Amino acid sequence: MKLQVLSTSDSHTFWWANNIIDQQTSAPYGLFRAASALSVIEGLARTEGDFVIKVENGDFIQGSPLGAYLAKQAPEMADILRKIPEEIGYDVRVLGNHEFNYGRKYLEGLLAHDETLLNANVLDAVSNQPFIGQAYRIFEKKGKKVAVIGLTTKYVPNREQPANIEGLYFDDPVKVARKLVKKLSKRVDAVVIAYHGGFSRNLSTDALLEAETGENQGNELLKIPGVSALVTGHQHRWIAGVYDGVPVSQPGYRAEAIGQLTVELDDQGEGVEAADNFSENEAVADAWDAKLPAARLVKTDDWPESARYVSELAALQVAMDEWLDEEVGRLGVDLTLADVAQARQTGHGFVDLINQVQLAATGADLAATALFNDEMPGFLKKVSRRQLLGNYPFPNTLVTIALTGAQVKEALEVNAGYFDLENGQVSVNKSYSYPKKQDYNYDLWAGLNYRFDLTKPLGQRVRVEDVAGQPFDLKRTYRVAVNNYRATGAGNPVFAKGKILERGKCPLTTLIADFLKEHEGFVPEKQGNFHLDV
Fold first, then answer.
1. Cβ partners under 8 Å of residue 80, min gap 6
2. How far apart are CA 219 and CA 505, in angstroms?
3. Please, which pLDDT band fits residue 231 given cuts at 50, 70 and 90?
4. Cα 137 from Cα 155, distance rounded (Å)
5. Residue 263 pLDDT
6. What CATH number is associated with residue 418?
7. Is 59 helix (H, G, I), strand (E, B) or coil?
8. pLDDT digits over 319-361, tens only?
9. Residues 50, 162: one domain?
10. pLDDT of res. 284
């Protein structure tokens, strides 16, 4: 008998297959596309008599405006976040790091009684037991038993706001898994790990891809004796392959793919090898009938949305769209982003606006913010909530930290490392695109005039010309406003060195909306404070 483990991960409340800003544009992703594909793939597998387990691998309740709508505007409807996965037929759910963005109580209200939730390492600090969910579950079919263990990256406390995870302890998933796999492998025919985390090393060469902070421990989990299959996520990568005899998947982001892992329960073979990028995974599909185990990804953009769920949630979509299309403020100038990549090199009025909001809200000397991805649309003159959440989907708050001038320069040097110079042309350093795109870790600053000389070595590129017209002082302490994610040192470890002066409680999206209401017809001060020298 074959075991098939089907998974989605990091769907981030992208359910409909349409662009959030331009609703008339079809998007190549979405949970309702995945639901159609899962239904057919599962049906075919069951026709063959296969043992099928479907996994929703975390980061399910936050990310698109739908997540914000359910959490903030219509919490009475939030149970749909439990109901839809139940109807799709997921056997297992795992907690992602973004599950905690709306706080522990919200999460408990949604999932405390969900029997599919597996959580082996996020513990109540008092009882030392899973605060919700169960550590593992054993499934049985025709005398064959399969155990699935649910794990979450232990790095959540390094990024999440303390109030959202109060009373929780994030145990080491590798340590927990070792104990459970040893225990369960004596009782079952196969042990599957569903881990909301990724890989810090290349799966084929073991070369280091990122600092081994404990955020992505998939490589260590893969080496635990007795693991039959490993489902991963968190990094939004496309991974499908068999490594050391263990099939591995990571199905991207926004339900753009489904992971499909196959293990022969009667006689496990050597498996089909595949590299950890999707272009080479195409070959895996052709080799699907080869010796098992095997792994592949199924892209969902070729599948229609499930008519059932589109119909079932039609009223919710209408209500949400009405809320999203409400005007939250008016600008005196259009601040749309025609070329996000170019805006990172030259600055842009949209960035100036966000930084001015941060400065106004905190009274800081300096502010820094990022253009999170290349899909950010910016603002039209009439700013809707749809635009607001389409540009800023995170429930981040502001933090004011104290940095010396020397630390400010050090942080700017980190930002200068975002760029490379190739044959006289500006490009993005590969460390920001592989193993995953991390444009959100590059900041543009306000409150100072500065330059990056890309002809110089890393660490020697920054020149600060002045701060608010005054000489830049390496010894002076400056107040710097950033979001709570950046304040932890995420993307720029220098920020974690600063003393926290003030933690804001109001989400930045609310601060932006309030600012626009108070300054109708606002035109951001053109900064022009940043230059690349090549």
1. 70, 313, 316
2. 37
3. very high
4. 24
5. 97
6. 3.90.780.10
7. coil
8. 999 999 999 999 999 999 999 999 999 999 999 999 999 999 9
9. yes
10. 38
Residue type, 306: S
Between the CA of residue 198 and those of 66, 218, 295, what are the distances in Å? 25, 5, 16
> Are the beta carbons of 59 and 11 closer than 8 angstroms?
yes
Which residue among 318, 345, 362 closes a domain?
318
- Show which of 318, 345, 365 is a domain's final residue: 318
Q: Would you call the peptide bond into 75 cis, given omega within 30 degrees of 0 as the criterion?
A: no
Q: What is the pLDDT of residue 267?
A: 57
Instruction: For residue 217, list its beta bridge partners.
Output: 199
Main-chain phi, psi angles of 84, to 5 degrees: -65, -45
Q: What mean pLDDT is predicted for residues 44-68?
A: 96
Q: Looking at the structure, do residues 215 and 309 belong to the same domain, yes or no?
A: yes
**Prior bond of 507 cis (ω within 30°):** no
- Cβ neighbours of residue 531 closer than 8 Å, sequence gap 6 or more: 450, 451, 452
For all residues of the chain together, what is the average pLDDT?
94
* Closest alpha carbon to 28 in 16, 42, 40, 38: 16
Is-contact 366 380, C-beta < 8 A? no
Q: Are residues 268 and 353 in the same domain?
A: no
Question: Using the 8-state DSSP alphabet, how is residue 91 labeled?
Answer: S
Range of the domain at 194: 2-318
**Cα 233 to Cα 307: distance, rounded to the nearest angstrom:** 27
Q: At residue 274, does pLDDT exceed 70? A: no
Backbone angles phi, psi at 314, to 5 degrees: -60, -45
Rounded average pLDDT over 141-169: 96
Q: Does one domain contain both 349 and 275? A: no
Domain total in the chain: 2
pLDDT, tens digit (0-9, with 9 covering 90-100), for 28-52: 999 999 999 999 999 999 999 999 9
